[in-house]
């Protein structure tokens, strides 16, 4: 790994833990709101990343399998729910997107059976649907004028963070193997952006609790 990895990776972990801790301060206020699930999600992410951050003697292959079949799918599933059900109130779109996304595992298991394919195909399809949700969320905010009051809008910060990370790194994961194997310099720069954008996203998630109205959709 490049030298910057050993600096940016701990910063990312700290930002994930910070977002979870900030969220926990609002558990009592949101205990009857669907937003409480966002707090549980952040706690799960922080716990997951803290566990894998330290070398516990678990093989790298097991870690890759965990993220491919558990860690990454849970992230996409929750974000689809947050956008499709919680914010856009469109359960049909959520069901369609999550169904197609999960079906991407079938051809991988039946025909490819290669973990490397999961890390390219799965995030590519998952982020493609996430881009649709991001666009619909922005259109919603423009339509109801909530974007004009972005400081109080929880979804504004979440949407901005998702754009920076998932949309911003879409080409990286589409061409992950190609860039890493044949264009190492570009891959290193893009991977640095991935770590930085990831950290900023969780900082924005924390801000969504601090500045966003707790009853906002």
From TrEMBL:
Keywords from the named record: Membrane, Transmembrane, Transmembrane helix
Chain ranges passing through the membrane: 6-26, 38-54, 66-84, 93-112, 118-136, 156-178, 190-211
The name this protein goes by in its record: Histidine kinase N-terminal 7TM region domain-containing protein
